[in-house]
Write the structure tokens for this entry.
Amino acid sequence: MRNFESLSEREVLALAIQLEEDDARIYADFAEGLRESYPASAQIFEGMRQEESKHRHRLFELYKQKFGEHIPLIRREDVRGFVKRRPVWLYRPLGLDVVRKQASAMEMEVRNFYEKVAARTQDASLRQLLGDLAEEERAHAMRADELNRQVLHPDARREEDEVNRRLFVLQIVQPGLAGLMDGSVSTLAPVFAAAFATRNTWDAFLVGLAASIGAGISMGFAEALSDDGSLTGRGHPWLRGLVCGLMTTFGGIGHTLPYLIHNFGIATTVAVIVVVFELAAISWIRNKYMDTPLVAATLQVALGGALVFLAGILIGSS
């Protein structure tokens, strides 16, 4: 791997050409990946791809004038100082916010590169071109804002926001809600059965902790292995599995922690109050994100929770 300071002007120009070519391809991938769900934003990245192609052409023309036709292969990963890029353009479906943040980071990195090279080069024509390109990269943020205003008219923006919301529900809310419901409801029986069977808060806490962690691991793997998201649009399977597993564990831990209180009556009372809040939270999430009527969601969740709760008490008291 080379140090930036050791690069000759020929190598610097070759690297700049490669950077512009890579960025143009990435923007093309962004446009292609967003076209189905976010057609207006796809047009924005297509415009940015065209800008990068123009930059590459100008750099190539200067290179031919100075060094001829052959361009040595030198890439960003061959030079110290460049940040390793996470290949978000390869993932499907593409997240709009992730793509925009990646594009902003790309523009800043290339602009800093041009400014640094322009400051050290002695060639007037090269310095002028690199300075111009640095200013154009700086202006890309304004260009993106301009394209946003031209392409993302209010109707298109509302449509993309709605698509973004649906993807958020599909990829985050659904697995998280499934985990929270499983953790909050399914662990009620073992926790309260252990509590009423032993009347020992520490034993109840250990049972609840084991049930919560075990359910979290099980639900996490089940969600991750259910499908790879390529056809359903449900996103990366391991992200869904992580969300589902963590929310399952969180749902069970909530009414387990009160049993760290040594007094059995107080601990059980606090645990029951926590359960009520957990079930209310699940009902609210179902109403807000799943469009389930609040009364129906509350009755369904309350009925399921009550049945499991009573089962635990009856088993523990028998």
Observations:
- The two ends are 71 Å apart (CA to CA).
- Residues 171-317 form one domain.
- The CA atoms of residues 216 and 249 lie 5 Å apart.
- The chain has two domains: 4-152, 171-317.
